[in-house]
Amino acid sequence: MDELEFLKKDWKKQGADFPRLSYAEIYKMIHKKSSSIVKWIFIICIAEFLFWGLIALVIPESTFAIYEKFNLNSFLFIAQGLHYLVVFFFIYLFYKNYKTISVVDNTGLLMKNILKTRKTVNYYVYYNIALYILLSVILNVVMFSHPNILIENMMPKNAALDSDKFLGIMIVVQIVVLLVMCGLIWAYYRIIYGILLKKLNRNYKELETLNPK
Amino acid sequence: MNKEIEHKFIVEFEQNQNIIHKVCRIYTSNQDAHNDLFQEIAIQLWKAYPKFRGESKLSTWMYRIGLNTAITLYRKSKRSIVTQDFDSVLYRIESTSYDDTEEEQLKLMYAAIHQLSDIDKALIFLYLEDVNYKEIAETMGISEVNARVRMNRIKTRLKTILNP
């Protein structure tokens, strides 16, 4: 192609028209902070680990008083122990994947490793949501199979509603809270993916079409 | 970090900075964006430099990090919204299609390149730098055959953009 050859000739000549940075300018430049997406992903992932790790600590002690009445405390204690084991496993996986990200790798591999690291944290969040739903179901099944204890402890004494209505409201409120939480999480991920990973995903897909397995 | 390594890096970077300017020229279309990307690549090069053992040529190493930063790591800053430049570029194509001066021809070429995808820009960049297909394939993580096929497609596409 003539035009390209023409461009190539000009390409080799260029250089004089670029600004030339001095030693001091380069020194200053390399000590500035990077704003690469790998750094952002790292920060967001750490924030997510902390968020889901700390959310349990924010729940007031009094919330658990009710579970004692159902003899659920030892179950919750064991569940919590297992949960922290899983969390540490996720952190280990995340760290391992993060360490494999190298800007010197070829473009395809670099993108693959970034997406893999990001996925680890996605699975972590899925795990937390699944755990949250599973625990809600287990706790509710146990509690609602002993409605007497539940009514005795949870229903306001002076409320003018019968116990059936009260149980109904309890169930509806729990379902609404669950749906709202899932909605918020979904919206959050739409934003994170929309902003941060759109370009990466697009380029990765394009490169993949060049490499049919 | 070690002052000696730092000094060595800056000297080498100073001598080879044109490579990075060229990457920025392909991937950005205004001065602010150019400077932004340039800085990010410089930071990435410096971060990777202590592990650079000289198994590959310095230029090859710089191509990789430069392109990886442009394609994958770099996020466009708010200052440089592409659409605006795009419009003026398209305008230029229409209004100057009868002008044959070399300068205009080159402007059109760059405008056409700016319309390519990030991946295709990388291939064109390596082609202009006279990198062979084996190395292009290794840099991008694709097969040599696919690199050739894709390059031919890009050439055709550029031709269509230039002569609609």
Arithmetic mean of pLDDT of chain B: 84
CATH class of the domain at 1-78 in chain B: Mainly Alpha
Question: Which percent range fits the helix content of chain B?
Answer: over 70%
Distance between the termini of chain A: 31 Å
Q: In sequence order, what are the helices and strands of chain B, one letter per element? A: HHHHHHHH
> What is the chain-wise order of helices and strands of chain A?
HHHHHHHH
> Which structural class do you get from the secondary structure elements of chain B?
mainly alpha
Low-confidence stretches of chain B: 79-98
Structural class of chain A, by secondary structure, is mainly alpha
Helix content estimate of chain A = over 70%
The major pleated sheet of chain A works out as: none
CATH architecture group name of the domain at 1-78 in chain B: Orthogonal Bundle
Q: CATH topology of the domain at 1-78 in chain B, anyone?
A: Rna Polymerase Sigma Factor, Chain: A
Largest sheet of chain B: none
Number of helices of chain B: 8
Tally of distinct domains of chain A? 1
Largest interface: A-B, 47 and 57 residues
- Estimate the global geometry of chain A from the Cα principal axes: elongated
Using DSSP, what is the number of strands of chain A? 0
